[in-house]
Design goal:
By secondary structure, this protein is of the alpha/beta class. It has helices spanning 5-9, 25-33, 47-57, 104-115, 140-153, 165-175, 190-200, 211-223, 238-254, 275-287, 300-313, 346-359, 375-380, 386-396, 417-423, 439-448, and strands spanning 64-66, 73-75, 93-99, 119-121, 124-126, 130-134, 157-161, 181-185, 204-207, 229-232, 265-266, 292-295, 326-330, 339-343, 363-368, 406-409, 428-431. Helix 4 runs parallel beside helix 5, helix 5 runs parallel beside helix 6 (165-175) and helix 14 packs across helix 15.
């Protein structure tokens, strides 16, 4: 039976050091009980307590780390079936398939194009993470050479795909520093693949022909001491794969089945007749629990919608996306530039800052922490009131950066101007437009005067 937060707290060192990422040991214990933290985050827990807590605090679906560097990621670690119940934690990784017999020049050109795929949205850089290198001819030297080229010439992390243990060993020797995922242990080779993964400390994919075989293989590899497993039920038909994905997610969460308590890997590239169909399948799999999806190619028009879908699904529905409170410079403002204030809801920030930038009027933009609420919602909730905004403006330090005392507030919050004037004596409170699209004209006209 899982331990409660209080039971876990009794076994922790109670130092309240904060090195685990939360301020107190009690808060950390509550996160462990809820499956939102890992025991390894506490550097001072005793060996005895670690032994007692490791099993009880483990998420029902084990988090598995793959790769290194800026594109390192985790999959798994989930605690709920549906996003609205709590949140999903580790986003689906998106990869592309490359054959090992690809000419080095051709592979180099692809890497150059794929490396450039990066999209900015609400202040975040969205990009794919993986290249799946498939051994197509059993040439261990060629497989290793391609793995080395990808590892050294790109930021992508690797899935090494080979049925040959010798070819896999050769590739691992040259790119183990990337912490690749080994694909895959099967009924025929699981002992050799398992030993290699255990020796090198690498995650291992398990491929079976159906759920019963998958459970049996998972148990065998777990019995060998392997913990970082990724599951492939072998299904390559959409309906069956959908069924398997749901079954694998449900088993550990609802039935406590640890044999299936691992993230999954899927291959739309082996299921669709073209990239558009693959993208459609990938969209379904991102929504329905895949830890990794592998496509046959990367193209911006296919990749960007998948990255945005992933962002939306793996954003905590209980916590709006926010930007950091503070003073933002837009277009090299000086002491005579206008000052605007708004909330820290990310969409509000990026819309307002974009319109200011489009106006070509260098400005200071004050972002106030309203717990991620938009202007209207924050005002209605009392978090963007006149006195609160006034106190924020005084503490922000903007008065030291400008030679005037004028500040522009959103038109939707016009009613707070009176309270702001009381809190900011000597300041002129200017009511801005209600619609952000009118900001460029407003700034040009108002500041010209």
């Amino acid at each position: 039976m899982a331990l409660t937060g209080i039971q876990i707290f009794k076994l922790l060192p109670k130092t309240n050091c904060g090195e685990c990422g939360v301020p107190t040991c009690l808060a950390f214990a509550m996160n462990l009980a809820a499956g939102k933290a890992e025991l390894d985050a506490c550097p001072y827990v005793s060996d005895e307590a670690r032994e007692k807590l490791s099993e009880a605090s483990a998420p029902p679906i084990r988090p598995v780390a793959i790769g290194t560097g800026v594109r390192a990621f985790k999959i798994g670690g989930e605690t709920v079936m549906f996003r609205h119940e709590k949140t999903f934690y580790n986003p689906t990784a998106i990869g592309v398939l490359v054959n090992s017999n690809e000419a080095p020049e051709s592979l180099g050109r692809k890497l150059k194009v794929w490396n450039a795929f990066q999209f900015e949205r609400v202040g975040l850089n969205l990009r794919p993470e993986l290249i799946a290198l498939k051994d197509v001819n059993g040439d261990g030297a060629g497989f290793a050479a391609a793995a080395k080229k990808i590892a050294e010439e790109s930021e992508f992390n690797l899935i090494l795909m080979s049925e040959s243990l010798e070819a896999m060993k050769a590739a691992v020797e040259v790119c183990a520093f990337k912490r690749p995922l080994l694909y895959a242990a099967t009924e025929k080779n699981f002992e050799g693949m398992g030993e290699l993964a255990k020796e090198k400390g690498l995650p291992l994919a398990v491929k079976a022909d159906g759920m019963d075989s998958l459970i049996a293989l998972s148990d065998k590899l777990s019995g060998m001491g392997l913990k970082d497993l990724v599951l492939d039920s072998g299904a390559r038909e959409a309906k069956q794969l959908f069924h398997d994905q749901v079954a694998i997610r449900r088993a550990p969460l609802k039935a406590g089945n640890r044999s299936l308590g691992f993230p999954t890997i899927t291959f739309p590239c082996e299921m669709g007749g073209n990239l558009d169909v693959e993208s459609l399948l990938a969209a379904m799999l991102i929504a329905k629990y895949a830890g990794i999806v592998v496509l046959s190619d990367f193209k911006g028009e296919n990749l960007f919608p998948l990255l945005v879908e992933r962002l939306n699904i793996y954003t905590d529905p209980q916590r709006p996306m926010t930007v950091t409170q503070g003073i933002y410079e837009i277009g090299a403002p000086d002491e005579n530039s206008p000052v605007l204030v708004t909330t820290n809801f990310s969409l509000t920030y990026f819309i307002v800052s974009g319109e200011i930038e489009g106006s070509r009027v260098p400005s200071w933009l004050l972002i106030m922490d309203t717990e991620g609420l938009s202007v209207m919602t924050a005002w209605a909730a009392g978090k963007f009131s006149g006195d609160a905004v006034g106190v924020f403006v005084k503490k922000s330090g903007i008065a030291e950066k400008v030679a005037h005392k004028k500040i522009i507030i959103p038109g939707y919050a016009a009613s707070i101007s009176g309270d702001m004037e009381e809190e900011l004596p000597g300041w002129e409170i200017i009511i801005g437009p209600r619609d952000a699209s009118l900001i460029p004209k407003f700034l040009k006209d108002m500041w010209a005067k």
